Amino acid sequence: MSRTLKLASVSLIACLGVACNGDDTASTESDGATSTASTSPTTTASASATMTASASDSGTETTTAGSASDSDSTSTTDTDPTATDTNPTTSDTNPTTTDPTATDTDPTSGTDTDPTSGTDTEASASDTDMPMPVCGDGVVEGDEVCDDGNNENGDGCQADCTLPCMPGDGGMMGEAEKSYLWVANTSQGSISKVDTMSVTELARYRSGPNAGGESPSRTAVSLDGRFVVVNSRGTGRVTMIAANEEDCDGPTTSQNKDDLLAWGTDQCVLWSILLPFNGTNQGGPRAVTWTPGDWNDDPDVCAFENPKVWVGYRPPGNGVAAMARINGADGTVEETISIGNWAPGWGPYGAALDKLANVWFTGLRGEVFRINTSEDPITFDRWQPPNNLQFYGMTVDPNGKPWFGGCSGPVSTFDPETQQFTAIAGTQACHRGVAADQVGNVWVASNGPCGLVQIDYETNTLIKFHTPAQCSTPVGVSVDIEGYVWLVDQAGWTWKIDPENPDVNNWQQLAVQGNHYTYSDMTGGQGKSVILPQ
């Protein structure tokens, strides 16, 4: 049985050198090293300053059925971003009839009897109002243990005794059998697949037919790790690639880092679409994230189905931006959210998912937005940050709080409940990509000074600034499904970092040829950390 995933505010039960005035003014189209920028901060953040957001809402305009032009939407929904957010899914319950984690009451009498012995004990009078566990009814209840009948601590209920399938089962990116980092090779118009376990570049795929003219940048990985989408700023193209050959359309595919096949011949490139952007590099698609889709709890399926991809861009016209919802299976644009009163010249800049499957995104040095994906029709909220917060890259941590790198400005975070922004003391710099791990750290790429910022996301305090042995222009940061941090330098390499032992002498370097203007969820770890149980 397939049902729409209801995500409560707690984790599910586990069964298992450039100028900092926008990327398009930076020298991102040429190969080779790029010198590190030295930026002059225009504002200074106070120590752990807390600032109240100024909220405004221009309303939501939605166009359905994958229309190519969405600026004349007729359906408008207004939301109050200052209102208390209510999770419409909090009434959702575990599909089992009882909570297997709750304290059990023994329905038998005070003397326990070994269920394998010949003597049975009748239920006591005080227990007569309690339902007796039924062996083989498909639900683990009472003292039942779902086993094969040979477990001495079980009750032998094995006939139909199956736990409901929950996210995390079925090798769902938790068992770490495979893990990939996807690095956009901006000047080549390609994307590299890196095995994060062996630290090896395995293959390269074109993001479109126009080589470096595609100018790929942002990538996003599906929750199950099987697919990646890459956005090409230069052409308005969005392309999806299968990570595993069993998901490809045939056997013809790249076999190593030097095996870059002609456009249209690699059968692991599953679909590619052109969005109706305004024709400029600034308006091309950037912000991107996946939402999980519907959870199918049939034990024979045990997977998310019908996932969506959200992509931001600038359509033709002034003062408007767009976020398109795309069918992950075939690339069909299903709905487009039109955002009016859009100030930045660039389109939506970064995007990430929260634990309610809402999509957060930002404008370059602009506002913060949240698309409320569970509402029908879909709505969005918007918040205006204080002037000293110059947003660049972003992410959402496992607690559901968005984080932003400032360029130039401090790293900051936003609390959706209190609707307050907090600047992190000691982080005034030019920052790019941002990622959060599952052990309490936010990691931020810094261009000037050059290195990696480590922040405690529970206390909102700076832990340490790390300067690697080789540092040019760090841009992308992502956390893989094993928990390792990856820092991608634009000049042609990436670093693998153990968050439990992040001393720079322990970092592992991998050369990845090309110019990499890439930052977003390059591994799939961001979605996993907020959706799947830990």
Write a structural description.
- It is a single chain.
- The protein has one helix spanning 525-531; strands at residues 2-3, 50-52, 54-55, 60-64, 75-77, 180-185, 190-195, 200-206, 216-221, 227-232, 237-242, 269-274, 288-291, 294-296, 303-305, 308-313, 320-327, 333-340, 350-353, 359-362, 368-372, 379-384, 391-396, 402-409, 412-415, 420-423, 429-436, 441-448, 451-456, 461-466, 474-479, 485-489, 493-497, 508-511.
- It is mostly beta strands.
- The strands form 7 sheets. Strands 2, 23, 24, 25, 26, 27, 28, 29 and 30 form a 9-stranded antiparallel sheet that branches. Strands 5-4-18-17-16-13 form a 6-stranded antiparallel sheet, with no helix packed on it.
- It is globular.
- The two termini are 24 Å apart.
List the helices and strands and how they pair.
Blueprint: E1 2-3, E2 50-52, E3 54-55, E4 60-64, E5 75-77, E6 180-185, E7 190-195, E8 200-206, E9 216-221, E10 227-232, E11 237-242, E12 269-274, E13 288-291, E14 294-296, E15 303-305, E16 308-313, E17 320-327, E18 333-340, E19 350-353, E20 359-362, E21 368-372, E22 379-384, E23 391-396, E24 402-409, E25 412-415, E26 420-423, E27 429-436, E28 441-448, E29 451-456, E30 461-466, E31 474-479, E32 485-489, E33 493-497, E34 508-511, H1 525-531
